[in-house]
Automatic annotation (TrEMBL):
Species per Swiss-Prot/TrEMBL record: Ceratodon purpureus
Coiled-coil segments on the chain, per record: 1155-1182
The protein, known as: C-terminal of Roc (COR) domain-containing protein
Stretches with biased composition (Polar residues): 1-14
Keywords, ordered alphabetically: Coiled coil
Positions of region (Disordered): 1-25
Length: 1403
């Protein structure tokens, strides 16, 4: 083989990519300095070979992991001769993949390599990729494909033909002939491109066969081993030919079809669907391309994958993966068919809808399509993964709620890919990911299957939460509810309230009230203060209770008598078991409140929230605005609290009713129109209506009812009865819509109630005890003996979770205990501890700065109760597992929520002792995305402190001594992890700041640790019990230079990461460098590349590269289509295509190479990242030139303007008299004067002409539509330039600073704008005359052009265009490098340059 002498001494590359120039260096990548021909280096078992066009004498060799993916950081280069010598001595090579480059030289190297593969005895698998069949002669093809011929020993193989080149049937014939003679191959993969273009059909016309005809020869052969087939850009006839053999095929497992024709009559996919009825092998089917699946085709496909109406059997149960990409589904009808499939199919495991056109932002009915998709998925029981990558229409709070609601019903989905969707851009994707991460831990498919086969009933339990500040009347309401007899005892019909019967009779009994365990300390107090004598009738008991509750609300009443922690009372309302959770109003208790809200359930919660307020003082002092403001802030606080602690939803939003108590004390004495009550009511309704609008996507409110007023001090039950019916009506409705619960859970509720009433029973038990009772008491468990102990235990825990969600018990996965009496734990333990250890008990507080001795803590918990003897450790363990406290050494206990000292230090050296002089700083600020609606609640950060401490102690990383409280701060925690010094700080806005530093060149290590901390914070945030599931973080990057000298979180300067990525990805500004001003007024800037770091910057560049390549693909499809009647000479030359494809391949190769190098050589990575940026920017410039050179084809409406002797690139600016010059994005109501401007039309790139005077345009009422059309032309040009990243060079950066935000949805949508139909964001910019009739006809364009010509005729005398617009009409000469000749209005700079080089001449 030429050029492959194994004895040739060639400079060997090092593992870092550098080559030595020594002649006697080792000719392999081992770097041991061994002599030539004596090296024992062996190639890996599996590797990739890249044959480069630009360096054909060298090969890039990259090892493969076991899963077939590229192994990071281990690629190396070898000369062809060294590769041949090395492989000749390697005995373990089993799997080789060879990727070809464009160019004749690389083709020759490619052929030589395939020839040599035949000599490797250990080789078992060979794949050849990116073969250009048009460049292969028959002899070349025979030589290459003989590798798979009769003498081959390969077990698996594959061939991929170049996507952008039509595959020749003659070449495929050679391949098929070779395969037909092979008796050894077990699997073979093939991907080819069809000849759908006119040029390709002409070139292949000399051969009578077709690619599919040749493939069918092989598919019908008994020796066929084709397991994977990809058909790209094929016509419908080829799909039909394949369908004819697919039904009985026994080998093909994966099939990918991309049709390239646009014929109106298509039936190929329908025929595939019919074949699937009898096919029993195909596992994966992918449908791609701009040609959609027709309605009839989709019906045939769906018919094979859903149960038959007559037999109930599903024809095909073997297909487990289905893909619809780009334009594969057509409109609403296509989505309806897909929804039908998802509702009924029982075998699909994976659905790929990435890049689906009908799920893009600007597509028609996108919201309805998204809603249809997720509604159908509620009923699916088999799907495990869903890919929605680049479906930009999947975004917004409603869609997030749809997904979260779907996940309540669908228990099989484990993975949803939301990359580059609207949800991911807004940060809401993390909510879904966190939910799915939780399902990974809690959902067991074997368990789900067993549960589906058990009996289910609608939930009959619910929780009612009473929220509000102290002295609001929550406890009084609770006591009234407990004292109310069942409705049947009142002698009223259901739903009716008779105030005359709303008090208990002297002989009535309170059957509604459930007993609960009362500690001795409370029993003694109760017996002294409120126990009636034996002769006291029961009615007196009620009156005493009511009068006592009224006294409790007196502001002078002792704090000892107020609710501590949370009181939990169980009641029976009709056929529903209700638990009322009375949340204490004092702030010290709020750190525990969020742990009991129903945020942990993944199977739905039936609950109701009251925000209880006492407006008595506000009504009495209406002239004091501060009082009304305080009441508004009180309501707002609790709305934020509820929204932050409940999972996102659309159908199951938390229901909130606002209750104003003590109405009997502020009720008007007469019907005076201006009474204090009516004035207050009017003001408060206005305030609440504003809050309802603010929270409408997060919370549900009563229709047409801003608040409810209620008496408190009277003994009447009328208001309480009405409230009870109000709540009950809602809860019954909600219980019917929620997923059903296990009947076993309902059956066990009576046992739980009996336990609660038994004061001698311990209020908590070990799980084993609870499990035993559950098995004994619930009949259905007796029939589950055969399922096995492990599965039975899982079912029991599922029942325990259901009982927790209903408020009957408290059960957490984190602890191996079951709290039978929530009231005991929430009030008698947590409430009692927080009271005695906080400022609430300022005289007798036994904790100092959150620290309490174990001895004092034990006394506090036991407090004379003999029932707890010997169980203190279990109680402490429960509190520790719930991150409420931790044992600080052997003698102390730390409760971080009570920590009020130890302020955060002012500089790093106060905490960290280091001799290093230089550090690498890194920082991130996690803000709440909806900061006016959700916030991290008071208890989150103290739990985060415990969580991080325990996390790193468990992972054995170095942590500061847990016996030294100075390392835990009031609003922070400090750690050292893998040598990285860390602070996690909470600032006054409630944002979490993660800042770190590492000495030396530790950027990679610093970022790895930083990323790990971020993941831990996010995981805790989404933890149902311990976190704030309603909160979504928005990340900001802290400027490193602001971290060096300060730790004050309130002084750190940062930039939004979302905005940073927008500038790079949407604007294409790869050199973007945000700046900040320090306290001394000094401005500092830093590049986006440095802020993001090497790895994330590489990922960002790859995403920008994909956007640019997508635009290039769109131009490839649009330009020939618009110019189909043009002569063949106008088409790009083959050499142009080769150069462009070579650049695209080079950029792609650079990404692959950098991914392997990213963690190994920082300096080399930075250098090559710069080169990659420049390559992408060069490609953007070429795209700009393509758009500008073909603007007449892309915007036909501008074509005729050349014939009118006026410039053809108009745009509208705000009036010259307004402050600053900005491109007009919105019509200003009432303003009739605007500024008309024109761009320079140079084909190298359009641009705004600086200091162009322009022309004032007066608009009459009858000209608004014509003006809007011209405005649309200008916006269309601007968006085109934005899409290719040319708006900065076009001079739009300062004139349109927010253009990318205004048109975000359009920029994220593939393709160009539809000039005949403005949509989305751009339609909102246009006058209402266009919004009402948005379709722009050819006649509309003609009239707009005539109007524009008329305006300029009046404003511009001969030569006026040059003076007003600084543009000169020029003609491209034959010396121009531009394709074709034409007329252009260009600026003075381009005019002078063109005249100098001869590319332009004047008209």
């Amino acid at each position: 083989m030429a050029g492959s002498s194994p004895g040739t001494s060639v400079s060997a590359p090092s593992l870092s990519g550098e080559r030595s120039g020594a002649r006697d260096a080792c000719p392999s990548p081992c770097n041991r300095g061994c002599a030539p021909l004596e090296c024992t280096f062996e190639l890996p078992k599996s590797f990739y070979i890249f044959v480069k066009q630009y360096r054909v004498d060298y090969l890039m060799v990259m090892p493969l992991d076991r899963d077939g993916s590229l192994s990071e950081g281990s690629g190396f280069e070898l000369s062809l001769s060294n590769f041949v010598r090395t492989i000749s001595t390697s005995s373990q090579v089993e799997d080789v993949r060879i990727q070809n480059e464009l160019g004749d030289a690389s083709q020759r190297t490619f052929r030589a390599l395939t020839e040599y593969m035949k000599t490797i005895p250990s080789l078992k698998s060979l794949h050849l990729e990116y073969i250009i069949s048009s460049r292969l002669s028959v002899s070349d093809a025979e030589a290459i494909f003989s590798t798979f011929g009769p003498h081959s020993t390969l077990q698996t193989g594959g061939v991929t033909f170049e996507y952008n080149e039509p595959t020749k049937a003659a070449t495929v014939k050679v391949l098929v002939d070779a395969l037909l003679q092979n008796q050894v191959l077990r699997q073979f993969k093939l991907r080819y491109s069809g000849a759908t273009s006119r040029l390709a059909r002409t070139e292949d016309a000399g051969y009578e066969g077709s690619v599919m005809r040749e493939l069918n020869r092989y598919l019908q052969s008994p020796t066929n081993v084709l397991t994977e087939l990809g058909m790209c850009k094929v016509d419908d006839d080829e799909v039909i030919q394949l369908a004819d053999t697919l039904g009985l095929n026994k080998k093909l497992q994966r099939l990918w079809i991309e049709r390239g024709d646009n014929s109106s009559h298509r039936e190929g996919i329908g025929r595939i669907g019919e074949a699937l009825r009898t096919n029993t092998v195909l596992e994966e089917l992918g449908l791609d391309g701009n040609t959609g699946v027709g309605v009839e085709e989709m019906e045939a496909l769906v018919g094979a994958l859903v149960p038959d109406a007559a037999s109930g059997l599903q024809p095909n149960t073997h297909l487990h993966t289905l893909s619809f990409m780009f334009g594969a589904l057509e409109g609403r009808e296509g989505m309806e068919q897909l929804a039908t499939l998802l509702r009924s199919n029982t075998s699909l495991l994976h659905l790929d809808l990435s890049y689906l056109t009908i799920l893009e932002r600007n597509s028609e009915n996108v919201f309805e399509n998204v809603e249809m998709l997720f509604t159908a998925l509620r009923f699916n029981t088999s799907l495990e993964s869903l890919n929605l990558e680049c479906c930009s229409g999947v975004g917004g709070k409603d869609v997030l709620g749809m997904i979260m609601d779907m996940l309540l019903h669908n228990r099989s989905l484990r993975k949803i890919n939301l990359e580059d969707t609207g949800l991911n851009e807004d940060g809401d994707g993390e909510v879904v990911y966190a939910e799915l991460r939780g399902r990974d831990k809690t959902i067991d498919q074997e368990l789900e299957k067993a549960i589906r086969n058990m009996e289910h009933v609608p939930p009959n339990s619910a929780r009612v939460f009473l929220c509000g500040d102290p002295e609001a009347g929550k406890t009084t309401l609770c006591k009234k509810w407990m004292a109310i007899p069942p409705l049947s005892a009142c002698g009223t019909k259901s739903g009716e309230i008779d105030d005359d019967h709303s008090q208990l009779s002297s002989t009535g009994t309170n059957k509604n009230r459930m007993g609960f365990f009362i500690p001795k300390r409370w029993r003694n107090k109760f017996s002294k203060s409120s126990k009636p004598s034996k002769s006291t009738p029961s009615s007196s008991v009620l009156e005493l209770a009511l009068s006592s509750s009224a006294h409790d609300l007196d502001p002078l009443s002792s704090i000892e008598e107020r609710t501590r922690g949370i009181e939990v009372h169980k009641m029976v309302w009709e056929d529903m078991n209700i638990s009322v959770w009375d949340l204490a109003g004092q702030e010290e208790y709020h750190t525990f409140h969020d742990m009991v809200l129903p945020n942990r359930s993944t199977i739905g919660d039936c609950c109701f929230y009251f925000i209880v307020c006492n407006p008595r003082r506000v009504v009495q002092h209406l002239n004091k605005q501060v009082q009304m403001k305080q009441l508004e802030e009180e309501i707002y606080y609790w709305l934020v609290f509820i929204a932050s602690n409940t999972r996102r939803s659309k159908s199951y939003l938390p229901h909130v009713t606002i209750l104003m108590t003590h109405h009997d004390l502020w009720r008007a004495k007469n019907d005076d129109l201006w009474s204090e009550e009516k004035v207050f009511t009017q003001k408060m309704k206005h305030i609440i209506q504003g809050l309802r609008n603010k929270f409408k996507l997060f919370l549900e409110f009563d229709m047409d009812l801003e608040f409810i007023a209620m008496d408190n001090t009277s003994a009447s039950f009328g208001d309480a009865m009405k409230l009870k019916q109000h709540v009950l009506q809602y809860l019954k409705k909600m219980s019917k819509s929620l997923p059903k619960t296990l009947k076993a859970s309902v059956d066990f509720q009576s046992t739980i109630m009996k336990w609660s009433e038994d004061s001698s029973r311990e209020p908590f038990v070990e799980w084993d005890v609870f499990s035993h009772f559950l098995f004994q008491e619930v009949l259905c468990f007796g029939s589950l003996k055969d399922v096995g102990n492990e599965l039975l235990e899982k079912i029991k825990k599922h029942v325990a979770v259901s009982l927790h969600n209903g408020g009957h018990i408290m059960y957490f996965d984190e602890i191996d205990m079951v709290i039978l009496n929530p009231h005991w734990f929430c009030q008698n333990i947590i409430g009692h501890i927080l009271f005695h250890c906080s400022k609430l008990n300022d005289k007798y507080a036994i904790a100092a700065n959150g620290i309490i001795s174990q001895q004092d803590f034990k006394k506090l918990v036991l407090d004379g109760e003999t029932i707890y003897k010997g169980r203190f450790k279990e109680i402490l363990m429960i509190m520790t597992k719930l991150q409420i406290c931790y044992e600080d050494g052997a003698e102390m206990i730390m409760i971080p929520s009570l920590l009020d000292g130890n302020p955060i230090p002012t500089n790093w050296e106060e905490v960290f002792v280091s001799t290093a002089k230089t550090f690498n700083y890194l920082g991130s600020k996690l803000n709440t995305a909806d900061e006016s609606i959700t916030k991290l609640t008071r208890g989150f950060f103290p739990r985060l402190q415990v969580y991080l401490r325990n996390k790193f102690l468990t992972e054995t990383y170095r942590l500061y001594s847990n016996s030294n409280p100075s390392r835990l701060f009031c609003k922070g925690i400090s750690l050292i992890v893998d040598g990285v010094q860390l602070f996690i700080l909470l600032d006054k806005e409630g944002s979490i700041n993660i800042i770190s530093r590492c000495c030396g060149g530790g950027d990679s290590r610093n970022r790895d640790v930083h990323k790990r901390i971020m993941e831990y914070v996010n995981d805790l945030r989404q933890t149902p019990t311990l976190g704030c599931p309603g909160v979504v973080f928005e990340e900001h990057i802290i400027f490193p230079s602001s971290l060096a000298n300060a730790l004050d979180a309130n002084k750190l300067r940062c930039v939004s990461k979302k905005r940073l990525l927008e500038k790079v990805l949407r604007d294409g500004d790869l050199k973007y460098a945000p700046s900040w001003v320090d306290e001394e007024g000094k401005s500092t800037s830093i590049s986006a590349k440095v802020l993001l770091g090497d790895e994330e910057w590489l990922d960002t560049l790859e995403r920008r590269r994909q956007k640019v390549m997508d635009m290039d693909k769109v131009l490839d499809s649009k330009l020939p289509a618009r110019n189909s009647d043009a002569p063949a000479a106008s088409e790009p030359s083959n050499s142009d295509l080769v150069r462009k494809d070579s650049m695209k391949r080079f950029i792609a190769d650079e990404f692959d190479s950098l991914k392997r190098l990213i963690h190994h050589n920082h300096e080399e990575v930075m250098k090559r990242l710069d080169e990659l940026e420049n390559n992408i920017m060069d490609f953007q410039e070429k795209l700009t030139s393509r758009v500008c050179s073909n603007i007449d084809n892309l915007m036909e409406c501008l074509l005729q303007l050349n014939n009118s002797n006026i410039p053809k690139l108009p745009y509208i600016m705000e009036s010259a008299g307004m402050s600053g010059k900005r491109i007009l994005l919105k019509m200003v109501p009432g303003l009739k004067s605007y500024q008309l401007q024109f761009m320079c039309e140079h084909k190298g790139g359009f641009h705004i002409v600086q200091n162009q005077p322009g022309c004032e345009v007066e608009i009459g009422n009858d000209q608004t539509r014509l003006f809007g059309i011209v405005m649309y032309w200008g916006l269309t040009i601007s968006v085109m330039l934005l899409k290719v990243g040319a708006h900065l060079t076009a001079g739009m950066g300062s004139m349109v600073p927010d253009l990318t935000r205004e048109f975000a949805t359009i920029l994220d949508t593939p393709g160009l704008l539809d000039l005949a139909q403005p949509r989305g964001d751009i339609l909102e910019c246009l006058p209402k005359e266009l919004k009402n009739e948005p379709h722009i006809s050819l006649q509309d364009n003609e009239e707009a052009k005539a109007w524009l010509v008329q305006i300029l005729g009046k404003k511009c005398p001969p030569g006026g265009i040059q003076r007003m617009f600084k543009l000169t009409q020029m003609v491209y000469t034959s010396n121009s490098n531009q394709k074709g000749r034409g007329i252009a209005w260009v600026c003075d700079k381009h005019r002078d340059k063109g005249e100098q080089d001869g590319s332009l001449r004047r008209m």
